[in-house]
Design a protein that fits this description.
By secondary structure, this protein is mainly α. It has helices spanning 2-18, 22-47, 62-86, 122-127.
């Protein structure tokens, strides 16, 4: 969530800068930087956890590192332009993200969970109790039988094999 919030605030800051609202853009990018820092800490913690599965390190992926540079460079640009051109105050609170899209060809459809089936009752859920399953100790894995080598006849090379190279 922190990673996507950082992306959202970064792109929102770029949009504000393009509409000459540099003070708000700076604040939005500062918020993006804060969320990116949180995401980086969480990714490093996740990468150090022990357990089964692959050892994923999200903080080392290109999409993650690219966001850090994007936030840093855009914030530096905003600060530089605010010092030379705009001279706008930075608001103390982050600007609100516009969550409802007002552009595009298709209107987004909100997701709704399908209604629960009448077949799923308490008794059905209780039937899936894995602690009540029978223990099947009698089935043991079979040992692989040893494969005996078969002696193949020696085939002598022939001059007239019938093959032609054309």
């Amino acid at each position: 969530m922190c990673f996507y919030m950082a992306y959202s605030f970064c792109y929102h800051g770029q949009t504000l800068l393009s509409s000459d609202k540099c003070g708000e853009a700076i604040r939005s990018l500062q918020e993006a930087e804060k969320f990116y820092g949180k995401a980086e800490a969480l990714c490093k913690e996740y990468g150090q956890t022990k357990g089964p599965g692959t050892t994923a390190k999200p903080s080392g992926h290109l999409f993650f590192r690219k966001l850090g540079n994007l936030v840093k460079n855009t914030l530096e640009k905003c600060l530089r332009e605010n010092g030379f051109i705009y001279f706008q105050k930075v608001p103390p609170e982050a600007p609100e993200l516009e969550l409802k899209a007002n552009y595009g060809l298709v209107e987004p459809v909100s997701f709704e969970f399908p209604p629960l089936s009448s077949q799923w009752t308490e008794e059905t859920h209780a039937a899936f109790d894995l602690t009540k399953r029978p223990k099947d100790d009698s089935v043991k894995p079979k040992k692989e039988e040893e494969v005996k080598p078969i002696k193949e006849p020696d085939i002598k090379p022939q001059k007239d094999s019938g093959c032609q190279i054309s």
